[in-house]
Amino acid sequence: MRAFGTWLLVALLMAVLLAGCSRQANPSGEAAEVELIDLRGGPINLEAYKGKVVLVNFWATWCAPCRVEIPWLIEFQEKYAARGFTVLGVAMDEGGRKEVAPYVENERFEVNGRQVAINYPILLGGEAVEQQFDGIIGLPTSVLIDREGRRVRRVIGLIDHNRLAEEIEKLLGEGAGQAVPAQGQSSGQ
C-alpha cells in the first residue's frame, strides 16, 4: 500500500512538471498576431480587434456541445456588441468553407424564444491557427481576450454561461472609458 502511495506521488509530480514544460506559443499571455480567413476568403487579423473584448470560440458543425453554446454566443453578441465586445467563431471542420458556409447560412438557433442565425463572424481554422492558440485539444474551446489583447481565460469544453457573462461584464467595465476603434471587418457571413 505504501509503495502505491509513493508511486502515485511520483506520477503526480511528473504530471505537474510535464505540464509546466508544455509548449506555449505565447507565454506573455498576449494574443499573438493571428490572421484568420473569413467565409468569403478574406483575411481577418486578430490585432484589428485590440480595444475590444473578444471571445474566440473554436467549434465544429458536428460538435454537439458546440451547438449547445451557439445560442449563448449569439446572446452575448447581441447584448454586449455595442459596448465593445465580439465573438469570433473559428470553425474547425475538415471540409472548411464547403461544410461551414451552408451550416451558417441555414441553421437557426433558439435565443430568448426567437429562431436566429449566427450573428458573429465565422472564420476558418486549421492547424496553423490551432498552434497560435497553444493547441486545441477538444471542442469547443473558448479563449477570452481583454481590450489590451491579453488572453485572460481559456475554457476547454462547454462554457459556464453565467460565469462567462460575469467575466465579460467585468472586462467591459474595465475599459468603459476607452474608445472602441471601428473595425471595418466583414462579418464573415
List keywords for this structure.
189 residues; alpha+beta; 5 helices; disordered C terminus; 22% strand; 9 strands
In words, what does this structure look like?
The protein is an alpha+beta fold. The protein has one domain: Glutaredoxin (3-Layer(aba) Sandwich), CATH 3.40.30. The chain has five helices and nine strands; from the N terminus they run H-E-E-E-H-E-H-E-E-E-H-E-E-H. It has a seven-stranded mixed beta sheet with strand order 2-1-7-4-3-8-9. Helix 2 links the parallel strand 3 and strand 4 (85-91). The chain is globular and about 40 Å long.
Query: Uncertain regions: pLDDT < 50 for 5+ in a row?
Result: 4-28, 177-189
Radius of gyration from the CA trace? 18 Å
| CATH fold field value | Glutaredoxin
Give the percentage of residues in beta strands. Answer: 15-25%
Output the strand order for the largest sheet: 2-1-7-4-3-8-9
- Mean pLDDT, to the nearest integer, reads 82
- Count of beta strands: 9
CATH class placement: Alpha Beta
The helix-strand sequence is: HEEEHEHEEEHEEH
Specify the overall morphology.
globular
Number of domains: 1
Structural class, please? alpha+beta
Number of helices: 5
Report the major sheet: 7 strands, mixed
Concise summary:
This protein has 189 residues and is of the alpha+beta class. The chain has helices at 2-20, 64-80, 97-106, 127-132, 161-174, and strands at residues 35-38, 43-45, 53-59, 85-91, 109-111, 114-116, 122-124, 141-145, 151-156.
Helices and strands in order, then pairings?
Layout: H1 2-20, E1 35-38, E2 43-45, E3 53-59, H2 64-80, E4 85-91, H3 97-106, E5 109-111, E6 114-116, E7 122-124, H4 127-132, E8 141-145, E9 151-156, H5 161-174
Parallel strand pairs: 3-4, 4-7
Antiparallel strand pairs: 1-2, 1-7, 3-8, 5-6, 8-9
Helix pairs in contact: 2-5
